[in-house]
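>> Question from a student workshop board

For tomorrow's exercise we were told to take the sequence and the ligand below, predict the bound structure, and bring the output to class. My setup keeps failing. Could a helper post the expected result so I can at least see what it should look like? The ligand is calcium ion.
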Amino acid sequence: MKYSGGGFDIVNWGEGGGVDIPVPGDYDGDRRADLAVYQPTRALWAVRSLVTGAISSVTWGIAGTDDLPVVGDFDGDGTADRTIYRRSTAQWITKFSSGRPPIAITWGEAASRDYPIPAPDFDLNYLPYY
Ligand SMILES: [Ca+2]
Ligand SMILES: [Ca+2]
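>> Workshop helper replied:
Here is what the output should look like for this input. Compare the format with yours to find the bug.
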């Protein structure tokens, strides 16, 4: 990664092979983005702090499905919340960093070609990330 303040680092994080989905965000609330990948085959969010090197992992989503990871601070506590966009139902299912009970909100068209921005669709096949 190339830092906005200058310099760069190379850090290996993820399984490689193009399966992991990068989901950077501030998961520990130190106001700095952390390296994070979502592994669809395990519904696993693997996070690594660039500051401390601390590693954590959380399962959120259903493994082996087309659940898509979305990151945002939806409860406003300054820490990233893990959210799954379930394409079959158009549900946004959020696990809050603050410990509030998870919520599921339908927003989008179920079983359609809707997908959450910024999920990229590089080859325009309506399968984001792939
Ligand atoms: Ca952080
Ligand atoms: Ca939050």
